[in-house]
Amino acid sequence: MRWQGQRITDVDESALPGMENRTGFLRTVTTPEFAGMTFHEVLAKSALNHVPGPSRMPFQWTINPYRGCSHACSYCFARGTHTYLDLDAGRDFDSQIVVKVNLVDVLRKELRRGSWKHETVALGTNTDPYQRAEGRYRLMPGVIRALAESGTPLSVLTKGTLIRRDIPVLAEAAQTIPVDVQLSIAVFDEELRAAIEPGAPTTQARLDTVRALSDAGFRVGVFLMPILPHLTDSIPAIDEALTRIRGAGADHAIYGALHLRAGVKPWFMQWLSQHRPDLLPSYRALYPGAAAEAPKAYRQWLAKRVRPLIRAHRLEARRSGDDTPARTLTQPAVLTSSAPTAQPMLF
Ligand code: SF4
Q1: What's the pLDDT score for residue 59?
Q2: C-alpha closest to that of 329 among 125, 152, 148, 155
Q3: Residue 341 or residue 311, greater confidence
Q4: Inter-residue contact 327 to 321 (CB < 8 Å)
Q5: Integer Cα distance of 8 and 93 in angstroms
Q6: CB–CB of 257/302 below 8 Å?
């Protein structure tokens, strides 16, 4: 197995709740190098996930090396998926990480199939491929190489500064396939950032990563999303964000208002009650009942203030998900490839 031979200082043999009898479960690992984290190593049956259609997403295929995410964003829409594993969508999502240790081998087999049409594959659509676990398991270099060698375009979206490790691999891949790279940076007040994304790299570290990727020749996009009502949606806050995004060398910006799906809403509201209880009535009004999206009027109001600022900062505006149609990801292969445009409202 890929992980055999790695130094593991403490192994907890207890099975992942709910997975004791599932084929493919290997073992549960804890190690002092990743204090507070538990990794559940599994054998994946498949690597490429087909996006169920019809979809707003500009891609049909995704790869997720991990389930759960140590970046621990309070607003993370993927939280609910952890309950499928009999884990909770809160602390467990942040710290109980499922690792598909055989991902690259499975992916290579799938890419060799005659039926594979080499459509763009998106990484980072569900959980972050450059979260802390990637420092241990190093799955992404193999994924990138496998896609490049098969002639499959790829798109990466991350909050993880660990992507800097893979800049040479991404640059090599971009010699033969379109490679799209985007950083997710939603909060530019560091105190708020630390409270709402406690496991993610600092805003400045992510901006430095944008700079490093830009210096390496990539046209980097920044996901300025989710924009949080009353917290990050003021004109000065958006202006500061775009100033720093542009200053870091980003090529384009994608924005969007907060989504609160059913699986994440209780956790986000709990966070809000602890950190900004004064905003609870307003959020309940904006996201009543099962509503996942802010009202159209709010999204239009947001578009009217963000779009002019994006233009003023000479950043190309990309789809917010509110009012601009999706385009395709396909572009000719160049080192500075930044094919894509639309993305789902993920981060
Ligand atoms: S929003 Fe992205 S980076 Fe944050 S916890 Fe979810 S998957 Fe991880």
Answers
A1: 87
A2: 155
A3: 311
A4: no
A5: 22
A6: yes
DSSP 141: H
What is the tens place of the pLDDT at every residue in 262-286? 889 999 999 999 999 999 999 999 9
Q: Are strands 316-318 and 252-257 parallel, antiparallel or unpaired?
A: parallel
- pTM (global) more than 0.85: yes
184 forms bridges with which residues in the sheet? Answer: 223
Q: Does ligand 1 lie within 6 Å of residue 76's CB atom?
A: yes
DSSP 56-71: SSS-SEEE-SEES-TT
Best probe residue, ligand 1, of 37, 69, 222 (max atoms within 8 Å of C-beta): 69
Helix (H) or strand (E) holding 26: strand 25-30
Please determine, for residue 330, whether its predicted confidence score (pLDDT) is greater than 50: no
Residue-level pLDDT at 296: 96
- The answer to whether the peptide bond before residue 281 is cis (omega within 30 degrees of 0) is no
Q: How many CB atoms lie within 10 A of CB 219?
A: 20
Q: Say if residue 226 is preceded by a cis peptide, omega within 30 of 0.
A: yes
204 Cβ neighbours under 8 A, 6+ residues apart:
190
Tens of pLDDT, residue by residue over 108-161, are: 999 999 999 999 999 998 999 999 999 999 999 999 999 999 999 999 999 999
* Residue 332 DSSP code: -
Question: Is any atom of ligand 1 closer than 6 Å to the C-beta of 299?
Answer: no
All structural domains of the chain = 10-318 (3.20.20.70)
